[in-house]
Amino acid sequence: MQVSNPNNVKIYNLSAGKSLPQWLSDRRKRSLQKQDVDLQRRIELLQDFEMPTVSHCVRVTKDGQYICAAGTYKPKVRCYDVSQMSLKFERGLDSDVVKFQFLSDDYSKIVFLQNDRYIELHSQNGRYYRLRIPKYGRDMAYHTASCDLYVAGVSSEIYRLNLEQGRFLNPLSTNSSEVKCCELNPVHHLLACGTNTGHVECFDPRVRGRVGILDTILNQHVEDLGVSVVPTVTALKFRDALTMAVGTSTGHVLLYDLRSDKPVLIKDHQYELPIKSIEFHDSLDLVMSMDSKILKLWNRNNGKAYTAIEPGTDLNDLCVVPGSGLLFMATEAPKVLTYYIPSIGTAPKWCSFLDNLTEELEESSETQVYDDYKFLTRRELEDLGLSHLIGSNLLRAYMHGFFIDMRLYHKAKSIAEPFAYEKYRKNKIREKIEEERENRVRLKVRLISKIFMIFLV
């Protein structure tokens, strides 16, 4: 576990800590966990909460009992049972997941929007049905009252798929050539769609027609924000019946009251990266806005920064456990990041032990990938005289180099450079002497001119 304190707000990174290489056998992993104290102190909130290469999106079911994550490569979805804190099932998919939605309170009904224009419906037993849409999809929303699934994508139309009748209905038409995102209001079920022209078009599911268009970037606001092109709408989120947050491709978040066409507040991320996800947290009246670089938490009323999380890897999706300070982030890395912020909420019931552990298990950040292994390039192997080990089980190929056991590395290093320790020892002694010299009190000696010296003589 790592703890950081940006803006005097404690943030616990539950995904940090020493990790084991994937190529090790289960028996070897168990053996290392018994021997290594750092591995024993590591907190693994959910067992194997990761993807093979990249995680695309993560969601929590409405009943809060299951967490699902989708990623690649190979494309797959994993479901975790929080009561057991472990993997419940894993399913392979034919293509990458763009978005997915829970159609029920638990994991028994899920719909996946994939990047090859397919929509997959899954039940408890697995894939139930698969159908294709005319254009590539970008986002989707599910209206529970009418069983309509709205799919937005690279088209001026929003496709309507009625899951009760099992057929497509007449689509909703927009004034733009592409719809980037869509969101349903949880109170009055207004459907908001963000387009590539910077507009938010709103539809009423009862009349199946457009009821209003919101121009998120007016001319005067474009000048104020200092952008030369009209941004596209990349993220939408409703807080209640009237409050809506709009994220743009230029890294701005605009808060609107639906009764007005002017933004109440404009927040700039300062990175000029598209906003990917927005969430509201009611405990301290906070807004969580995320781009591919950073997650920012700020006050909804005045825009004042509360804290920020910058993991160091590109972010894809954000999921906040309702009513708690626990959040998950899907990233361009195998691990699904887990963060806990006690100041904005307590831990969920299924991991209430976090409140006690966060103060006890704090460790410094790790810079190495694996502490028991050393990464070497091919040239470094040749310098150490270990190039003949390539292809054996003593080296593990990875990217542009190899992983080698740290003990074997130190042994080869001492043979290849027998005087390396003496050189290291002399450098340390020299550095120590220089430090002591700097700490000495230096006397200031005033110089006397030659003419004045002659006068004294």
Characterization of the model:
This protein has 457 residues and is an alpha+beta fold. It contains eight helices and 32 strands. The protein has helices spanning 26-35, 37-41, 219-225, 354-357, 378-384, 406-416, 420-439, 450-456; strands at residues 2-4, 11-13, 54-60, 66-72, 76-81, 86-92, 97-102, 110-114, 118-123, 126-132, 137-143, 148-153, 157-162, 167-173, 179-184, 191-195, 199-204, 209-215, 233-238, 243-248, 252-257, 265-268, 277-281, 286-290, 295-299, 305-309, 315-320, 326-331, 337-340, 373-377, 395-398, 401-405. The protein has a five-stranded antiparallel sheet with strand order 1-2-29-28-27, with no helix packed on it. Strands 3-4-5-6 form a four-stranded antiparallel sheet, with no helix packed on it. The longest helix is centred in the C-terminal third of the chain and has 20 residues, at 420-439. It is globular and about 90 Å long. The protein starts with a strand and ends with a helix. Residues 363-368 have low confidence and may be disordered. This is NOL10. Residues 1-365 form the Nucleolar protein 10-like N-terminal domain.
Structural descriptors:
WD40/YVTN_repeat-like_dom_sf; alpha+beta; NOL10; 16% helix; 457 residues
Summarize the SSE layout with pairings.
Blueprint: E1 2-4, E2 11-13, H1 26-35, H2 37-41, E3 54-60, E4 66-72, E5 76-81, E6 86-92, E7 97-102, E8 110-114, E9 118-123, E10 126-132, E11 137-143, E12 148-153, E13 157-162, E14 167-173, E15 179-184, E16 191-195, E17 199-204, E18 209-215, H3 219-225, E19 233-238, E20 243-248, E21 252-257, E22 265-268, E23 277-281, E24 286-290, E25 295-299, E26 305-309, E27 315-320, E28 326-331, E29 337-340, H4 354-357, E30 373-377, H5 378-384, E31 395-398, E32 401-405, H6 406-416, H7 420-439, H8 450-456
Antiparallel strand pairs: 1-2, 2-29, 3-4, 4-5, 5-6, 7-8, 8-9, 9-10, 11-12, 12-13, 13-14, 15-16, 16-17, 17-18, 19-20, 20-21, 21-22, 23-24, 24-25, 25-26, 27-28, 28-29, 30-32, 31-32
